[in-house]
Amino acid sequence: MRAAVIRRPGPVGSGPLILETRPDLHPGPGELVLDVRACAACRTDLQIAAGDLPAKRLPIVPGHQVAGRVAAIGAGVTGWSIGDRAGAAWLGWACGACARCLEGRENLCAGARFTGWDRDGGFADQIAVDARFALRLPEGFDDVSVAPLLCGGVIGYRALAVSGIEPGGRLGLFGFGASALLALQVAVHRGCEVFVATRSPAEQARAREFGAAWAGGYDQDIPAELDAAVTFAPVGDVVIAALRAIRPGATVAINAIHLDRIPEFSYDLLWRERSLRSVANFTRRDATEFLELAAAIPIRTVAEPHPLAEANLALARIGSGAVQRAAVIVP
Predict the structure, then answer these.
(1) DSSP symbol at 13
(2) Which of 58, 99, 191, 257 lies at 20 to 30 Å from 214 by C-alpha?
């Protein structure tokens, strides 16, 4: 099998992903081996490759939005057959026994392991996954179309819940990449009036195409007081812009695993029971609910395919903002 491997993080222009040939995988007890058909690339993959997120272990194969087929089944696994369609996502393992897991928040498990960070991910021909965390993929999506749903889609879905937005409410989305595009479609489906702030005129046009009531730059005043907001850009200044736009009692959900900083701001922006909340990972329940909803809407994804040999290029295009779709590695 081939795999794009990070051995030493560094600037994406330096090519931190190295294409290697490795032995084919064999499942351990409780595992599945999937033949990877598509793996969407994520800004988190970029941050791990560049070293903005410290590596959990090296070498590591990144990629955590995997659509594939079951190629081998480990001892003790039930409910899966060879050839079944299956997905792997960011949450690759949780203990199931700690207080957070028992209260239904396995995304906050202190021992959680993440695909492409703790466990080898999907920038490869094959991936080994804990069968309990493998996802059933909905019909109606091909592999390239479904892969971007498995992180950006699910985490965007959880971010909407964390923000507290109600059906029909006024929602702000700050930053407009692949995850925000999917969250927009869920919010519009629920009857929300959505306002999108992004620096790119092309992204503003795409937001309006997908149902945004308004789209403009960060320096423009949003023409309504928002009931909730979600920030997608990994930039602290954007968080402050979102705080300025929400009503008293509303929440800004920060959908980022890594943020450059949050600059000093006046307490007046937070006063009157406004809230800032981070969004950390997601649960298997989030993933199941979102995938069912995605099929029902149905959500549209727009992919930019890359062969495995172009994994560095895909990450570089994400970093430069050149990707106007979801970059997807197709081994």
Answers:
(1) G
(2) 257
**In angstroms, rounded to a whole number, what is the distance separating the alpha carbons of residues 39 and 17?**
15
* Cα-trace Rg, the chain: 19
Cβ atoms 70, 80 nearer than 8 A: yes
- Decide: 64 and 88 in contact? Cβ < 8 Å: yes
The per-residue pLDDT for range 167-223, each reduced to its tens digit, is: 999 999 999 988 899 999 999 999 999 999 999 999 999 999 999 999 999 999 999
Contact status, residue 4 vs residue 12, Cβ threshold 8 Å:
no
Chain centroid offset of residue 178 CA: 8
Same domain, 15 and 114: yes
Q: How far is CA 53 from CA 41, 49, 161, 318, in A?
A: 16, 8, 25, 16
* CATH number assigned to the domain comprising residue 23: 3.90.180.10
The terminus-to-terminus CA distance of the chain in angstroms comes to: 10
CATH number of 211's domain: 3.40.50.720
Strands (E), 74-220: 85-88, 91-93, 113-114, 126-130, 170-174, 193-197, 214-216
